[in-house]
Amino acid sequence: MEWVNETLVREFVFLGFSSLAGLQQLLFVVFLLVYMFTLGTNAIIISTIVLERALHTPMYFFLAGLSCSETCYTFVIVSKMLVDLLAQKKTISFLGCSIQMFSFLFLGCSHSFLLAAMGNDSYVAICNPLRYTVLMGHGMCVGLVAVACLCGFTIAEIITSLVFHLPFHSSNQLHHFFCDISPVLKVASHHTHFSQFVIIMLCALVLVIPLLLILVSYIHIISAILQFPSTLGRYKAFSTCASHLIIVIVHYGCASFIYLRPKSNYSSSQDALISVSYTILTPLFNPMIYSLRNKEFKSALQRVVGRTISLPRH
């Protein structure tokens, strides 16, 4: 092992894919293709929502915010991971590690609160449709996104400050492929029970509070849908909410497994595998689940493409 004795750690070494040395070039190609597809689909979603007036609704406003969040989230983690897959020495500076941790925490926490905002939007649309345009006006939507970002920024700032104010004198080897909380805490020389308690509580709050808000919204939504007289109406309402529910289950399932487990159950190999799913695979499927299977969105995309192709003729 590589030890840094009696001096402060100035850089960290990633060992996340060290056991797959013979497969790293193949992993690079696979992850690069997935990464490019994810960036491309999110760019299509954002540009279509911006260019098509029919999509200037609260649901698509939140979806555009979610796509921006996922694009930045994958960039922060996957771009560095791709470089490391081809590098001999997979290192990141102490400052770079702290910036990466802050960025992915900020984007991940904001993502959680954005999912809660989308749950609230579905609740108002189904349970109070006559007042929907009043209750979910542009100002309200911007305010909800701003609150989500503010909460994400505050939580990320506190956790990152607590983690990187700890002393790092011993090992600088992270058994992971990015600067996640648990791997970095594991190589700290020592940390107080207070800082560990605050970090766990903040992780729990950022998962539990939005999830409770979503659950309350869907309890009201389901009870309202069951009162619909038409079977077709019930089917359409459930299918509208299904995409959001799938993403909520995947997002909170992975995040809870990583951040809410007892420390005694920590497994670097399991964490790396789950982290691949929510940093690479979940952003890949989210655009397809939310938009590319949505008839309204596909129609809007066809109109945008049609207008773009016809522009040179004029």
State the assembly state of the protein chains: single chain
Main sheet record: 3 strands, mixed
Q: Can you give the mean pLDDT? A: 84
Helix content: over 70%
Transmembrane segments: 59-79, 99-119, 140-164, 197-226, 238-260, 272-292
Keywords: Cell membrane, G-protein coupled receptor, Membrane, Olfaction, Receptor, Sensory transduction, Transducer, Transmembrane, Transmembrane helix
GO molecular function: G protein-coupled receptor activity; olfactory receptor activity
GO cellular component, one term: plasma membrane
What does this structure look like?
This protein is mainly alpha-helical. It has helices spanning 24-51, 58-86, 94-127, 132-135, 138-164, 181-187, 193-225, 231-259, 268-292, 295-310, and strands at 11-14, 91-93, 173-174. The chain has a three-stranded mixed β-sheet. α1 crosses α10 (295-310), α3 (94-127) runs parallel beside α7 (193-225) and α3 (94-127) runs antiparallel to α8 (231-259). Mean pLDDT is 84; it is low at 1-6. The chain crosses the membrane at residues 59-79, 99-119, 140-164, 197-226, 238-260, 272-292. GO terms for molecular function: G protein-coupled receptor activity; olfactory receptor activity. Pfam families: 7tm_4. Keywords: Cell membrane, G-protein coupled receptor, Membrane, Olfaction, Receptor, Sensory transduction, Transducer, Transmembrane, Transmembrane helix. It is a multi-pass membrane protein.
